[in-house]
Amino acid sequence: MATRYDRAITVFSPDGHLFQVEYAQEAVKKGSTAVGIRGTDIVVLGVEKKSVAKLQEERTVRKICTLDDHVCMAFAGLTADARIVINRARVECQSHRLTVEDPVTVEYITRHIATLKQRYTQSNGRRPFGISALIVGFDCDGTPRLYQTDPSGTYHAWKANAIGRSAKTVREFLEKNYTDEAIATDNESIKLAIKALLEVVQSGGKNIELAVIRRNQPLKLLESKEIETLVTEIEKEKEDEAEKKKQKKST
Amino acid sequence: MATFFGEVLSVYSRAVEEDDDDLDDENEDERIHREIEEKREVHIVWCPEVAQSLEDSGSNTLQCSDLIIAVGTNAAGFLSAYVLNTESWDAVGHVSLWNERSRGSSRQSIAPLPGEPACLFYRHRDNPAVLVCQSTCYIAEDQLFQWTEKVFGCLQKRGLSVMVLSDSPVAEYKTPDYLYGSAVPFLRSLKSSASKGQALCPALEQPNILTGLPAAVLSHCQVHQIPAVLYQCYTDVISPDSITMETYKPALLCLSKLVKLEPCLSADVLRKFAIITEAQSNLYT
Question: Considering only alpha carbons, which residue of chain B is nearest residue A77?
């Protein structure tokens, strides 16, 4: 009888479920796909662009946001919840800088966000945040990091991950294709992110938005022309692969 | 009753008797019930040609070989986009009813405006035995029996075959396995025992049940041994949506045998019938 344990989120069901948290995870699946890749000298965030209404300012509809110069995140789920979480994270980043005179580590800010989310799964009258986030950046010592949080307040480090609608398909693609050679160069890492998104995005490159952080450099949003060029490269590589296979079969 | 002193007293009966006052109250109650019943009555309003054909036939019934009923906005949208988009369909009637969720127009003769929740009938010009009914308004439980009796009362039972398309939220689909996002939307079917032939999708598993108009129609067909097949589409979207509408495509196989359909539908036409809530809804990013 799931329905009796839905109402107050501080209540466990007899078999140990927190249904509101699980339902919040369903809300995450209603957001479009976001993928994060940790390369050797670069971290990449790719998102499926939402279709924007004609009269809407496109640049105000963003799935990728900076939290600090060296950390940024992409989210999937409820837009308004994301705004609140991002604001709190940004304040914490600056507060940390002022207090200890060091920029936050990616793990620290992820832990802060995850703790905030967990608090909302343990108070009455409040519902969990309906977002999952992919947080990427570089620590002071130059190590690239990728973390993922979810509405329950758990966080884990990943080499590559995806959230949102069709995340499962993208994750399976990444499990097959994330190899050391696939992330050998920056360009290859970016292409891997695009390839992963192309698995699930309709109508190709123009619905993809990509952001990269390189060591000691701020966030860079790739222009659509650059993305189109990369998509064309990828498609050409695919065709060449298919040609080679055909030739192999015929010989 | 005999008293202690031997006199006999008449005793008042303790059975409740109806006084003049009570009578008025009862009448008032009856009056109120009658008014409510009249208000909730289901009326079918046919166009003049069809009303004439009904009169001309001795039994006040229409000859109908196939009745296709769409219940819900996605099912109705699918029919509008794939079947009713050619010029060969005439609107021949509508059902006028009132309930708390469906405040139909108080004057029955006014046809519902396009886009309003309503229950409309269409007939194919070249094959007048094919009737389509699009029901997007809510029909209360107490009105379902009336609706079914009145609609089927206008149709000849002989040779009649019914197809129902209906929407349902996937949250009401009970299954022991977890449904991954890619599986939704999907179709399940249910048939009356008079229906021969294969359904185009798996049958609805237990313990899932049908409710509302589709259930009333299927029950009626089962009782009266009319071959009927129902396709229930489980979807996770509340508003009309093109992907959900496309899930009904297998039904086109049966429909194409009855009437000529548009061979190939452009995505634009489909989008016209789906409310473009995706772009305007900023709830999820």
Answer: B284
